[in-house]
Amino acid sequence: MAKRLFVLILIITFCLPGSLLAAKVKDPVGVLFNVQGLVEYSKDGKKWKKVRRNKFLFSGYQVKTGPDATGNLLSQKSGENFKISSDALVKVTNADFETVQGSMEPDAAAGALTQALMKKFSKAQSYTTVRRAPKKKLDLQAARELVLSDLYPYVVWPNQGEELSYRLDVGEMQYDVPATSNPIVRVKVKPFKGAQDYVIHVIENGEIVSSLQPYRKRGEDKKHQLIWMDEDKSKTLLTTVNEIESNFPDNYFMLGSVFEEEEMWVAALDQYQKYLDENPDEIEMKPYLFRVYKKLMLKDMYTKELEAFQKELEAE
């Protein structure tokens, strides 16, 4: 059951809609998982790090197993699942995996489940190119559509200034939001049924000075919407989250991909940020976070971190 769940989550992770990786960013060649014993990876064959949980692998990486250690490799290109022997050394190439020492045998246990896995990776030019717009005094924008649940009932938007407070209107409900120095304003919303329009008002000295405006789509003005996940979907989601947390502890990236599939952008944001905080050297995974920034209209954070990301790429 655990292996089946892991493979299904990987299918979601690698088949997310939209663009995620820039031309200069390498696509993952595969994933290392089901690690037992001492298994290490290296980006250059010199500096080695212990693999503590599932690991995305890129061209140029190497994997080695110690005595009585083993693990599984899942290929992006073919969808095949391989079992690595102990005392093995495997190089990750542009095309696939190359055994230098030890053996790597097909693992029939995952068989049919891997056939649809990782058919393609999208190229994310739109999420790794800085586009600057003229800076307005107030430029309030927020997610056009956001799915909430009992598990994640939060709405976020970019802070317009430390001295400003807000009022969030969700249907007939109103939430007064105090000023904050945090770059992201976060509000917990009470449960409701179905979908509700929402509007954010910026308040200065007790007066509304700006409000979230409808956006244009196919020539029409559209209101921003919040959607509360229904009970059946919430139960299914909770079951999936619990199984991931039980079988793959601390795998925030897997959780983020599940939330992203459900368009729960705030939940995905939190999980991707946790993953990157714990794995700061895995800069190749940052475009997934950039996609969520764009969905949540967190433009300043997106631009700032994207510039840092591009410098990191140039330094490698």
- Residue share in β-strands: 25-35%
Q: Mean pLDDT across all residues, rounded?
A: 82
Could you state the oligomeric state of the chains shown? Answer: single chain
Count of DSSP-assigned helices: 6
Structural class of the secondary elements?
Answer: alpha+beta
> How much helix is in the residues?
25-40%
Give the overall shape: elongated
- Order of helix and strand elements from N to C terminus: HEEEEEEEEEEEEEEEEEEEEHHHHH
Q: How is the main sheet built?
A: 6 strands, mixed
Give the number of domains.
3
Q: What is the number of E strands?
A: 20
Task: Report, as a whole number of angstroms, the end-to-end distance.
Answer: 39 Å
* Gyration radius, rounded: 22 Å
Q: Return residue spans where pLDDT drops below 50 for at least 5 consecutive residues.
A: 16-25, 110-136
Topology summary:
Blueprint: H1 2-14, E1 30-36, E2 39-42, E3 48-50, E4 55-57, E5 62-65, E6 70-75, E7 81-84, E8 89-92, E9 97-101, E10 104-106, E11 145-148, E12 154-158, E13 165-170, E14 173-177, E15 184-188, E16 195-204, E17 207-211, E18 215-217, E19 220-222, E20 225-228, H2 231-247, H3 252-261, H4 265-278, H5 286-295, H6 299-315
Parallel strand pairs: 11-20
Antiparallel strand pairs: 1-4, 1-6, 2-3, 2-5, 5-8, 6-7, 7-10, 8-9, 12-15, 13-14, 13-16, 16-17, 16-20, 18-19
Helix pairs in contact: 1-3, 3-4, 4-5, 5-6
